[in-house]
Amino acid sequence: MDAAALQLLAEHGIDGTAHRARQLTPAMLREADLVLSMEKSHVGAMTRLAPEANGKIFLLDKWLLGRDIPDPYRQQREAFDHVYGMIKQGVDSWLRYL
Fold it and tell me: How far is residue 78 CA from its own chain's centroid?
């Protein structure tokens, strides 16, 4: 994980040190109850990877503006702060449906 992301998470009381990226597989999508994506193109790619999981793959920002949430990787800290806020709003918007 990017050092800026780790620091930002720590500042919000979240320990990201155990996070390890993994390659997404069709089995992971089939086994999930809900899959939230940051970008519309990711929703499409996941749907193509596992068409049978289509009904549980959604955009994180679905209940707000339906916008993509950009990846701040290799950008300045301000970009991470901005994206963190977008992710938090997206997560909060999903809570009433979970």
Answer: 18
